[in-house]
Amino acid sequence: MVTDQLRALVHRYPLVRFATRRLRVRLPRRLGGLDPDRVPPWSRQVSFRLPRLESDTRRTGPDVLTVRLPGDLTVPRRLAYFGLARHEPESLACFMAMLDHTRPGAVFDVGAGVGVYSLLAAARTSRPVFAFEPTPEIAAAARVLSSSANLGFTVVESALSNHTGTAQLRRSPHNDMCNTLVRSTRGDLAHITVEVTTLSRWNEGATALPTVLKIDTVGTEPDVVAGGLEVLRRYRPWMLVKVRPDRGVEERLMALLDPLEYTWYPVVGPSPYEARTEIAGRASPAWERMWLFTPEPVPEGFWPSVRHWRTAVDRCAPEPDA
Description:
4-stranded mixed β-sheet, alpha/beta, 7-stranded mixed β-sheet
């Protein structure tokens, strides 16, 4: 128990985590020492390319983004090494095509992390973009991205669920992309209290017209949908939702979405994707289990658009070293 609390303390505070690692590089391996080359810096400058269609004549937004972000966050580290070409490329291509084929309106990025989907929507469209992220240091990194290149998407430091008030956010000890709301009253160092509201309640105050909705909340996606049913009925947005099997997520999503008559497509492999009658299956790796939910079958030109955007995303790999 003491060891768990010490580990939680280290993971909760970035400065403590950084100082602990700097101390461990001085220890021999048998005593828990770390390889200095594998210890992330306090901050890192990340430069990565953004996808653009070859047919784009408007030249909206930057082609390359350079920002300084916390050194140990997972997504900035991956972007530094691999660029966007290996950051959920199938999902990114589908998301960009959604922006091209849905009616004008806002983009809601729920469980935004540092805001990769949000920055792409802000860079390539004039839509209002809202990024919902409850983890304080990750939301702060998203605000850095928002202020870069005048992207200007709005970061909402709050969690969305099926109730309003506060909730416990459990920090993952291994991957900051896996922080999630839990049904717990524990107040230990592995949990923090965060503001929580429903999508429908938040949208009443924002008076936005959402037409694109992306949800990735590490297992609580049905709660987000349940708290936004009024929005889904009224605005009928297209949705890109991460579905993790074996947690009851699939069954709950089907129960919520079936009365709304959405069409369900698993986003895996080369498009076009076939509509399914149930949300199930292990067709894709754990980090790429996205599903596309549309209020009607997709139009004829959607799948070619997905393929064009996938080619554009593939071009966003880092330049090889000279």
